[in-house]
Structure formats: C-alpha cells, structure tokens
Amino acid sequence: MKAIVCTKYGPPKALKVEEVPKPQPKDGEVLIKVHCTSVNDYDWSMVRGKPFLYRLLFGITKPKRQIPGMELSGTVESCGPDATKHQPGDAVYGDTSDVGFGTFAEYITLQEKALTPKPQNMSFEEAATIPHAALLAYQGLVEMGQIQNGQTVLINGAGGGVGTFGLQLAKMYNCEVTGVDTGDKLQTMKAFGFDHILDYQSKNFTRTGQKYDLILDAKTCFSPYAYLRSLNSKGRYVTVGGKLIRLLQLTFQKGLIKRLTGKKLKILPLKPNKGLEYINQLFEEGKLKTIIDGPYPLEKAPWAIQYFGDGLHKGKVVINVSESH
Ligand SMILES: NC(=O)c1ccc[n+]([C@@H]2O[C@H](COP(=O)([O-])OP(=O)(O)OC[C@H]3O[C@@H](n4cnc5c(N)ncnc54)[C@H](OP(=O)(O)O)[C@@H]3O)[C@@H](O)[C@H]2O)c1
To answer: Which ligand 1 atom is at minimum distance from the Cα of 183?
Structure first.
C-alpha cells in the first residue's frame, strides 16, 4: 500500500509517498481502508520533531511511528479476532492520537475504540475534519468551560478547526462570539458567523478593555495575568494548546489565581473520541458544518503539512487518500 513515510525529523518537503506492507488486524483491531485524513498540529510537530519536548511523545532521535496522521474516515475492510463492534463495509471515522497515529496511508489497523460510525449525511471529507477539532471545541466550551446561554465568548486562534466548531457550538447557546486570528482568514470567519473579529497582528485582545464570560484559546500566547484582564468576574478561560512556556505558567499559577480572583483558568487534556456520538447527532440535525481546505491527494501531503505550518489554510486541510487507490 502507499503511505507517507517519515524516518527522520526534518522539513515536510523531505517526505515521500512510499510502498509499505499492508497491515493485518490483531486482537481487538480492525483493518480500515482510509478514504480521507486531515492535517493537524501534531503532524506539523511530529514530522519536524519540534518543539523538542514533543520528542518525548514521538521519539527522541527519530520518529517511533513512521507514518504521520491522526484523523481519518474510511471503511472497515476486515476485523481481527475479538473485534465485534464494527463489521466489514461499515463507514467509520475517528481520532487515532491515543492509539498510534498513521492515517497518511491507504490502510491502517486500529483498536475498535478509536472508531465511531459515520452518519450517512456526513461525507468522508467532512468526517476527517471532525473528531479532533470538534471535540477540542466541545470539551473546551461545554464540558470544561460550562458555557451558558447568552454569554460573551472569545475564541483565540479562531480561524482554524477549533474556532470553526467552537463558533457553531457557542451559537447553539445564543452567545455573542468574538474570533481572533489574522490575514484572509478574518473574512472567512466573518462570513461564517463570528459577531466580531480581531486581527492579532494589529490588536492585543487582552488590552482592548473588553471583558468576556468565557475564553477558548487554541493558541495560548499571553501570561495568565493578561487573560485575567479580559475575563468578567467569575469568568472562565480554557486553553486547548499554545506556547509551552505559557502553558507551564498557567499550570503553576492557576490555583493561586482562582483563590485570589475567583476566575478559573483551565488547560484541556483532550479525551480523544469522547463525545463523538453527540457530534454525530448535531451533524444529522444539520447543526454543524465544516470548512474544508482541499481535498488534496496523498502525494500532496508533504506540501499540505508545510501549507498548514505556514498558516495559509482556512478551516481543516483534507487529504483524500482514496484518490490514490
Ligand atoms: N488539549 C489537547 O489535548 C490537544 C491535543 C492536540 C492538539 N492540541 C492543540 O489544539 C490546538 C488546535 O487548534 P486548531 O486545530 O484550531 O489549530 P489551527 O487550525 O492551526 O488554528 C489555529 C489558528 O490560530 C492562529 N494563530 C496563530 N498564532 C496566533 C496568535 N498569536 N493569536 C491568535 N491566533 C493565532 C493560526 O493562524 P496562523 O496559522 O496564521 O498562524 C490558526 O489560524 C493547537 O494549539 C494544538 O496544539 C491540543
């Protein structure tokens, strides 16, 4: 089968499509014919081995897993011993980040728990954009942020996957939503329904004097004290990712901040695939849409990872692997 293979850390352009053996499902696993996958922050970091701390996860000197890619949609081709949840022919999708990555390939074997049935009205392209970003937004805004009807919400780094889903979830709670990002993405965000947009290159949202009930951050880049300025009393701030140094500051200072100010600053550790049944329901009811950049063929995956890293994408960058079958 064809796959993108990464044997050493370096620029995405060094990656190539190679022929590798088709895997066989073991106990509790299924073999999936991959239709689509998408590009994520993990791919950008895993391929380059940067930031260095990520190598604790991916391998110190070279990648432990040689095929990148974490989200997929596809069809179950066969089931291994003791795999009973899905049948051959089932259309499924999921986030593989806690079961080993490897979706930039024509086939992958996976533990059944990483897969959820794909609704009929969701295309394979759409499905590949959903599990990671939609659940970061859902777990961040709803579970950890405890979003309430009519709140003022700000999403920082709102032009990507998390922002797209975050806006739609916040609108289900009739919230007034501000999105922060830059460049061409701002027009797409306005058209998609953000009430207010801010360009982070020309405005620091923590210095405008405006306060919010809930902040969801996909790109934590300020100190915890800067976020405090932008929160109403009893306001909540939830980050899903960002600069390591800022996340460390948050980890060590959030307890004291809560005691002194009553404001809650939280870091979301994603629980992969938890809540996808609810996301399916929203999608079936027509309440969730995705913004797709692409789809691009597997051969363009190295270019697509660089394109993502350069911040030129809008919404989720989709790779249609089945086009190369
Ligand atoms: N919590 C967890 O367990 C977990 C697990 C995996 C990943 N993550 C994290 O979750 C986040 C994924 O978000 P996503 O999929 O929406 O990413 P994304 O598609 O890359 O979107 C992030 C957006 O933020 C913009 N941005 C960059 N710097 C910014 C700044 N200083 N201020 C405001 N916006 C800025 C980016 O613009 P440019 O592209 O122009 O820079 C991009 O449009 C990442 O931070 C990732 O590391 C979390």
So the answer is: 40
The residue contributing the CA closest to ligand 1 atom 40 is 311
pLDDT for residue 315 is more than 90: no
- Structural domain for 159, as ranges: 133-267
From ligand 1's centre to the CA of 219, what distance in Å? 5
How confident is the model at residue 314, as a pLDDT? 82
> Is residue 189 located within the same domain as residue 169?
yes
Q: What is the pTM of this model?
A: 0.94
Same domain, 60 and 96: yes
In the 3-class helix/strand/coil scheme, how is the chain assigned residue by residue?
A: CEEEECCCCCCHHHCEEEECCCCCCCCCEEEEEEEEEECCHHHHHHHHCCCHHHHHHHCCCCCCCCCCCCEEEEEEEEECCCCCCCCCCCEEEEECCCCCCCCCECEEEEEHHHCEECCCCCCHHHHCCCHHHHHHHHHHHHHHCCCCCCCEEEEECCCCHHHHHHHHHHHHCCCEEEEEECCCHHHHHHHHCCCEEEECCCCCHHHCCCCEEEEEECCECCCHHHHHHCEEEEEEEEECCECHHHHHHHHHHHHHHHHHHCCEEEECCCCCCCCHHHHHHHHHCCCCCCCEEEEEEHHHHHHHHHHHHCCCCCCEEEEEHHHHC
pLDDT for position 106 = 98
Ligand 1 contact, 180 CB (< 6 A): yes
C-beta 219 within 6 A of ligand 1: yes
pLDDT confidence of residue 308: 95
Number of domains composing the chain: 2
Ligand 1 atom nearest residue 269's Cα: 3
Q: Is residue 281 part of a domain?
A: no
176 domain-assigned: yes
The CB of 250 under 6 Å from ligand 1? The reply is no
Ligand 1 lined by 182 (C-beta under 6 Å)? yes
